[in-house]
Amino acid sequence: MPKRTRAGALLAVAVTGLAVALAGPAVAVPKAPGFLAAKDLPPHPSSSWTAGKVTGGIPDDVDWDICLRALPGHESAWHRDFRTDLDTNARQLTVVLPDTRSAKQLTSWLNKDFKSCPARLEQKDADTEATGKDYGKVSVEEGAHVYGVHTETSGGASDARLLSVGRDGRTVTVVNWGQLGDLKGAPVKAFKKTTVTAVNKLH
Q1: Among residues 176, 177, 120, 122, which one has the least CA distance to residue 152?
Q2: Strands 77-83 and 88-96
Q3: pLDDT of residue 13
Q4: CB distance 35 to 92 below 8 Å
Q5: What is the mean pLDDT of residues 185-202?
Q6: Whole-prediction pTM value?
Q7: What residues does each domain of the chain span?
Q8: What is the chain's Cα-based Rg?
């Protein structure tokens, strides 16, 4: 090999090595965990579910959601919205934490958020009466828990909401179901099944 060509090759190798050294170790971008499909939601008596796309990040409207105070601010997060043609909607939010300890902490905070949500809703709006119900734990992976929240305003608006939080390793998922009405008509049994499916799909 001619000296000039050989020198150029050695320089190229040196520059490439320097670039790699400056870049440091590659940081793997977390892949979105598995999400619920429309068919996994509690069946609606008169309308089918439609699923939106799995989208990166926590939606902006969660910033004002008193029941989900612990969720905003997490970078490795995704969500998926669901709707029917009538008065029912749902959303799944999933966060991948740096380690299992952080995931346990987030799960604990979310459980506290759900339990204290009715009282904080009433404090925020004097015209709203809120009640909560603890539907208990669900056996799946590292565990899940289901809650219900009912709100009624002085103007007569009545809304029912089912919430669950579950964990698999360092991944935490929240499922939110909402409908006009009260908790008497809420599909709690089917929602627990949905929660199990949501956690199992996190693998």
Answers
A1: 122
A2: antiparallel
A3: 40
A4: yes
A5: 97
A6: 0.84
A7: 31-200
A8: 23
